[in-house]
Write a structure and sequence with these properties.
By secondary structure, the protein is α/β, with parallel strands linked by helices.
Length: 290
């Protein structure tokens, strides 16, 4: 006959087994990550071929915890398209504007397609995790980290930190609850020069900087003149009609062809035909003649 201690021990074991099975499901992981209080500031997850540290209160961190990655399929899809169209030069440098906490940085590094990655991230919260993730995955030799915003001129700019989605932080205030800080801003040419990267060695530009794309792009004309493929988030909802029109005209001076991504579909178009009446989408700009 079981005594009281044995019964309690068996009940605890059954409870723990049940909890383990529950929290090994997507629903259970979602339940767990949303139940954590503010005292848990960072978590580190074994994602299979890498580890990732993140804030459990952040949108991107929650996604990584639930799925084991954050939009890794977008990186895989892009690399597949570039290879298929012979637009990807092996052993070049990736310029990543908006490195966030390093999820895409890690995915690009693990692909083995790039000799170097220059990852630029202005938000100090994200940058600390970006540096941690690069270091704990042993990628310090191939990833150069730069803590600033990319813009047309050197100096400082106001930067607005989104509280629940750090990936939405931007040089443009989108919510009244955003916290304002000041961050350094540098032209892309200066960033590459200090990193000892020859512009001719840049093979891809990946940009996700939440509405600041037009200003950053004006500091990359030397790269655009080389027809380097550019993948970015295009956000008419942030730019407004006039700036959207001017931005498309500016990009069309350098690129002729593009793929516009809505959901998982890439629609071919001419750069001059990029729509300005939609809220937001991803776009890959390239020169089909290369």
């Amino acid at each position: 006959m079981l005594d009281t201690k044995s019964i309690r021990r068996h009940l605890r074991k059954a409870r723990n087994n049940l909890a383990s099975r529950l929290f090994d499901t997507r629903y259970g992981r979602n339940l767990l990550i949303n139940s954590l209080g503010p005292r848990v500031q960072t978590m580190t997850l074994d994602c299979g071929d890498h580890v990732m540290s993140f804030s459990p209160g952040d949108y991107i961190g929650k996604k990584i915890f639930r799925k084991g990655h954050f939009e890794r399929e977008h990186v895989d899809r892009l690399l597949g398209i570039l290879k298929e169209r012979r637009l990807l030069r092996q052993g070049t440098t990736l310029l990543e504007l908006g490195g966030n906490i390093g999820s895409q940085t890690i995915y690009f590094a693990l692909s083995g397609q790039f000799a170097r990655i220059v990852s630029v991230e202005p938000d100090p919260r994200n940058f600390d995790l970006l540096r941690t993730n690069v270091t704990q995955n042993g990628l310090e030799d191939c990833v150069i980290l730069v803590n600033c915003a990319a813009g047309a001129n050197a100096g400082e700019i106001d930067f607005f930190q989104h509280q629940s989605n750090h990936g939405k932080s931007s040089a443009i205030r989108h919510n009244t609850s955003d916290s304002k800080i000041v961050v350094p801003v540098r032209p892309v040419g200066s960033i590459l020069n200090e990193a000892a990267i020859n512009p001719d060695d840049v093979g891809l530009i990946w940009m996700d900087i939440e509405g600041y794309e037009p200003l950053a792009c004006h500091s990359m004309q030397a790269l655009f003149a080389r027809k380097i493929p550019l993948y970015m988030e295009f956000s008419p909802t942030f730019y407004g009609p006039d700036q959207s029109t001017a931005f498309v005209q500016f990009l069309a001076e350098f690129y002729e062809d593009c793929l516009i991504f809505r959901e998982d579909e890439g629609t071919p178009a001419k750069v001059r035909e990029i729509p300005i009446n939609e809220k937001q989408f991803d776009v890959l700009l390239f020169d089909a003649a290369i």
